[in-house]
């Protein structure tokens, strides 16, 4: 059995196991599961740019907010459309708006690197938040109520859990295909040394823009689902600086530049903050910082890097000749 086949089987088994969760666990844990899967999807979408290409964004919540508000504004004006069609329309609108926004800002902002790019993206997030909050058309200060899309007789918690699961698996599959393609190899070369990659013939500018747009579209679609699951959004509920921080933490916890690292990091961090520290709401940021500092010191490569190091040591130990 090849490594790829084993990974596919593990992902399928994990997906089937997760699909059973809303039917066997109490609603609280189903909501925690929603947040885990939503966060993992966001982390993987962020990693297409931040992990694969090495362009760490501090402002990806801009696309969550743009996607959520664009979909909500369109859906509330489609009173005669059947509810079953509203969600697909919202997903298309939210994803398209994020794609257009990212394509417009890609050329100037991707000329920056490292900290400058990260700070510029944080600025984009804050500009989008201010526009949404202060321009009456966007209704960010008053709040936007989504139309109901949950079929009659279906539990909303279960419905959105399964919706998040389907979206999260789709994002993971897209990222997987990207990583194993020539495009993905080009992104990894950009992360290692962009100037050398350009000299070797890698179309670095085109690859960066493509990764940026794909990452933005996937993030925006997840933002649409998030808005629907909340039912009512304001500027503060979608343009969140703690989300920007968490997206980076997910990859650092699980393993920066890896495919499954953001998934592991998101599941771990959400479980710690929502279940273990659920009664200590003011302790979340402190716990996040403490956990991150410990991990950076103990395992700079994240959990996946730590496991790889253990496997290497085990191989060396088993291969060493007996004295």
What is the chain-wise order of helices and strands? HHHHHEHHHEHHHHH
Uncertain stretches: none
Structural class: mainly alpha
Strand arrangement within the widest β-sheet reads 1-2
Distance between the termini: 34 Å
How many E strands? 2
β-sheet strand percentage = under 5%
**For the report, how would you describe the main beta sheet?**
2 strands, antiparallel
Q: Given the C-alpha coordinates, what overall shape results? A: globular
* Radius of gyration, in angstroms, nearest whole number: 20 Å
Mean pLDDT: 89
Helical content (DSSP H or I, runs of 4+): over 70%
What does this structure look like?
This protein has 323 residues and is mainly alpha-helical. It has a domain at 30-240. 76% of the residues lie in helices and 1% in strands. The protein has a two-stranded antiparallel ribbon with strand order 1-2. The longest helix is centred in the first third of the chain and has 27 residues, at 83-109. It is globular, with a radius of gyration of 20 Å. The chain starts with a helix and ends with a helix.
Topology diagram in text:
Blueprint (H helix, E strand, L loop, with lengths): L2 H22 L2 H24 L10 H15 L7 H27 L4 H21 L9 E2 L10 H24 L2 H18 L4 H27 L1 E2 L1 H4 L2 H14 L6 H16 L7 H15 L3 H18 L4
Antiparallel strand pairs: 1-2
Describe this protein with a few key phrases.
323 residues, mainly alpha, globular, 2 strands, single chain, 13 helices
Short description:
By secondary structure, the protein is mostly helical. It has helices spanning 3-24, 27-50, 61-75, 83-109, 114-134, 156-179, 182-199, 204-230, 235-238, 241-254, 261-276, 284-298, 302-319; strands spanning 144-145, 232-233.
């Amino acid at each position: 059995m090849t490594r790829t086949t084993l990974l596919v089987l593990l992902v399928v088994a994990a997906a089937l196991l997760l699909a059973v969760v809303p039917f066997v666990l109490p609603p609280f844990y189903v909501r925690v599961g929603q947040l885990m899967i939503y966060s993992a999807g966001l982390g993987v979408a962020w990693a297409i740019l931040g992990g694969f290409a090495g362009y760490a964004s501090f402002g990806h919540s801009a696309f969550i907010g743009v996607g959520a508000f664009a979909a909500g504004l369109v859906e509330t004006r489609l009173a005669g459309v059947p509810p079953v069609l509203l969600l697909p329309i919202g997903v298309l609108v939210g994803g398209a708006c994020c794609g257009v926004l990212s394509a417009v800002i890609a050329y100037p902002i991707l000329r920056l690197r490292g900290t400058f790019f990260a700070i510029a993206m944080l600025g984009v997030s804050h500009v989008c938040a201010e526009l949404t909050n202060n321009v009456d058309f966007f209704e960010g200060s008053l709040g936007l109520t989504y139309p109901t899309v949950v079929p009659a007789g279906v539990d909303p918690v279960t419905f959105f859990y399964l919706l998040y699961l389907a979206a999260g698996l789709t994002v993971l599959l897209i990222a997987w295909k990207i990583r194993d393609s020539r495009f993905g190899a080009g992104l990894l070369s950009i992360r290692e040394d962009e100037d050398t990659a350009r000299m070797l013939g890698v179309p670095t500018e085109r690859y960066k823009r493509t990764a940026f747009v794909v990452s933005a579209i996937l993030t925006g679609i997840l933002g649409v689902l998030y808005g629907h699951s909340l039912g009512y959004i304001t500027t503060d509920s979608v343009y969140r600086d703690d989300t920007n921080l968490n997206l980076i933490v997910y990859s650092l916890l699980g393993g920066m530049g890896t495919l499954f690292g953001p998934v592991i990091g998101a599941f771990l961090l959400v479980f710690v903050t929502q279940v273990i520290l659920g009664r200590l709401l003011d302790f979340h940021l402190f716990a996040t910082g403490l956990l991150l500092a410990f991990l950076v010191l103990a395992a700079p490569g994240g959990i996946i890097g730590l496991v790889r190091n253990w496997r290497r040591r085990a191989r060396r130990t088993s291969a060493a000749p007996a004295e």
